[in-house]
Write a structure and sequence with these properties.
Layout lengths: L6 H12 L3 H10 L4 E2 H8 L3 H13 L4 E5 L2 E5 L7 H13 L5 H14 L3 H10 L18
Helix pairs in contact: 3-6, 3-7
């Protein structure tokens, strides 16, 4: 009997494995609302920069997210047009599952509203100053005015 593994099966398994971690799942759900800087993801997830980078690398390898570098910042986004078909199906499934969010996902949405209004330079410098520590809540002076 031949042990046959198709590229499609590997891609589906890769997407499923990438989404099997709660932090990666939360990151992808946050990116549904639009592009986020890595420092915003660090603030949302409450993880160290290296841990968030590792999680985002796994998601990118699975074709679930894309990134771009802008100066010293790295921005992540979901780009379904450029994603492989298996990743697009996984993202569609995830959207369906997230229609009835639980407590953590609702809390993430609230925090994300606050994080999106924060000044990126202040947010990044605050994180650099407390590397490895849990993120502190944003003060009103750290928030960007709405556009």
């Amino acid at each position: 009997m031949t042990n046959y593994r198709s590229e499609t099966a590997d891609a589906i398994a890769g997407a499923a494995k990438a989404l099997s971690d709660p932090h990666r799942l939360r990151a992808v759900l946050a990116l549904r609302e639009g592009e986020l800087c890595v420092c915003q993801l660090i603030e949302l997830l409450g993880l160290s920069p290296s841990t968030v980078s590792k999680h985002m690398s796994i998601l990118a390898q699975a074709g679930l997210v894309r990134h771009r570098k802008a100066g010293r910042w790295v921005h992540y986004r979901i780009d379904e047009k450029e994603s492989p078909p298996e990743a697009r199906r996984a993202l569609h499934w995830l959207r369906e599952c997230a229609q009835a969010p639980d407590g953590q996902l609702l809390e993430d949405r609230k925090r994300l509203e606050r994080i999106r209004t924060a000044d990126l330079a202040v947010l990044c410098s605050t994180q650099r100053g407390r590397a490895g520590a849990a993120p502190a809540p944003l003060r009103p002076s750290q928030r960007r005015p709405p556009r």
